[in-house]
């Protein structure tokens, strides 16, 4: 079937085959391919560097965005190694592959490395071994042996007691979580023993004090536990494929300077944005977009003309008007009465022009004053950030909406609320709203 179907599709033009029949043929072709080939999705460390912090934050990699290799199920696994060598230039003898698996907590992590016996099998035989019933695709992680990598940090020689861990670095100032590398560690060792290695991965000083957290799960809620550096990895139940997040240690009296001072609070924030994608989009928009909701953006737009410049333009217009009036003064009249009426009309017109000029100047001054007031009342955060800030207080939807509108128009109240300890913000906000209503 695999050979007949492509020929059938080549011989028949779209107009010659009924659309439903053609769709059925294509479907059968895909089914035939699924029976003959396994799509092997190979994730490399380069994919982790590119995706974590940009496309994803939780787990390690999105396999839909990595290189896919269709391999005949009757071919030995060595065929994949040859294809990878051609694609990435990684010698066959330096490639080591790991299975992924879905854990009980719904995370998708590395499971174990393929054995020599498994790599000698045919591709079609590997899928059941990897703890997944889907035989149409295979998701792997490619580990490159240290000799190929030109880096100063060398993983330990792997043995039965060694486990492969992945590390993410959190920067509370930039509110950024990114991947920095992986290390083999001995499960009987302690995190304190690899602090210098982690500081080197992060570009910190060797003796920088850091805090470590294990990224446990994110469904249905985030679990990120502090890791005691003095307790062994085995005692902390750390295993192959686990993710450790770390950051510089922040002194307690500086914690309030950051919106999300530690990894757990930042992951909670990301989880909320994930639950409400519109918040993530709002957070990227400048605050000026929200002026349009209230219909006064024309007064505070950055392109608004300053009052002084508007007065100068109005002044130039007045001069032109006076010149035209002066030219009309020398126009001869047929009678004294007509001249008198003409003179009165010109005087009245000049008075009207002066009044109009003064009115325009007053309007210009008012617009400038409104713009100055708007600049002073500018919020210290974007609309999206304000919504996320309100959500952190655990308000119900109706109260959260009222609070958003309330704070959006009152930068002074918002600044005071930001200076309030997090545990008291909800109480203070409710009191602010009640006082204003009074």
From TrEMBL:
Q: Where is the Ubiquitin carboxyl-terminal hydrolase 7 ICP0-binding domain?
A: 95-271
User: Does Ligase show up as a keyword for this record?
Assistant: no
Q: Which organism is it from?
A: Heracleum sosnowskyi
What protein family does this chain belong to? Belongs to the peptidase C19 family.
Q: Organism classification, top ranks?
A: Eukaryota, Viridiplantae, Streptophyta, Embryophyta, Tracheophyta
Stretches the record annotates as Disordered: 309-355
Q: Where are the transmembrane segments?
A: none
Keywords per UniProt: Hydrolase, Protease, Thiol protease, Ubl conjugation pathway
Q: Which InterPro entries match?
A: USP7_ICP0-binding_dom
- Molecular function terms, GO-annotated: cysteine-type peptidase activity; deubiquitinase activity
Please state what the protein is called. Answer: Ubiquitin carboxyl-terminal hydrolase 7 ICP0-binding domain-containing protein
- Quote the cellular component terms of the Gene Ontology held in the record: nucleus
**Where is there biased composition of kind Polar residues?**
322-341
- Annotated GO biological process: proteolysis
């Amino acid at each position: 079937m695999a050979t007949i179907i492509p020929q059938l599709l080549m011989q028949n033009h779209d107009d010659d085959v009924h659309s439903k029949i053609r769709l059925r043929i294509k479907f059968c072709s895909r089914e035939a391919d699924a029976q003959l080939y396994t799509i092997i999705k190979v994730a490399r460390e380069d994919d982790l560097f590119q995706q974590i912090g940009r496309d994803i934050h939780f787990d390690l990699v999105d396999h839909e965005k990595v290189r896919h290799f269709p391999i005949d199920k009757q071919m030995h696994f060595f065929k994949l190694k040859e294809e990878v060598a051609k694609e990435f230039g990684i010698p066959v003898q330096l490639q080591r592959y790991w299975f992924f698996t879905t854990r009980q907590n719904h995370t998708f992590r590395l499971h174990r490395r393929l054995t020599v016996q498994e790599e000698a099998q045919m591709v079609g035989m590997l899928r059941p071994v990897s703890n997944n019933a889907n035989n149409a695709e295979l998701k792997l992680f490619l580990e490159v042996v240290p000799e190929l990598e030109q880096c100063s940090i060398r993983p330990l020689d792997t043995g039965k007691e060694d486990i492969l861990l992945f590390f993410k670095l959190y920067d509370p100032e930039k509110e950024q979580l990114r991947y920095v590398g992986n290390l083999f560690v001995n499960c009987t060792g302690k995190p304190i023993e690899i602090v210098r290695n982690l500081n080197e991965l992060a570009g910190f000083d060797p003796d920088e004090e850091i805090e470590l957290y294990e990224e446990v799960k994110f469904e249905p809620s985030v679990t990120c536990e502090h890791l005691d550096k003095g307790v062994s990895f085995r005692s902390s139940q750390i295993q192959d494929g686990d993710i450790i997040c770390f950051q510089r240690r922040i002194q307690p009296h500086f914690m309030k300077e950051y919106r999300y001072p530690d990894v757990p609070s930042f992951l909670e924030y990301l989880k909320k944005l994930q639950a409400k994608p519109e918040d993530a989009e709002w957070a990227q928009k400048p605050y000026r977009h929200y002026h349009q909701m209230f219909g006064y953006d024309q007064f505070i737009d950055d392109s608004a003309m300053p009052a002084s410049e508007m007065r100068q333009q109005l002044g130039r217009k007045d001069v032109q008007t006076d010149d035209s009036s002066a030219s009309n003064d020398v126009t001869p009249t047929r009678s004294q009465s007509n001249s008198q009426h003409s003179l009165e009309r010109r005087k009245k017109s000049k008075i009207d022009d002066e009044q109009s000029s003064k009115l325009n100047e007053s309007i210009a001054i008012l617009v400038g004053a409104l713009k100055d007031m708007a600049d002073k009342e500018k919020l210290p955060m974007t609309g999206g950030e304000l919504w996320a800030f309100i959500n952190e207080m655990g308000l119900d939807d109706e109260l959260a909406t009222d609070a958003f509108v309330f704070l959006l128009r009152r930068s002074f109240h918002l600044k005071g609320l930001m200076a309030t300890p997090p545990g008291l913000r909800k109480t203070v906000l409710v009191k602010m709203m009640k006082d204003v209503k009074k």
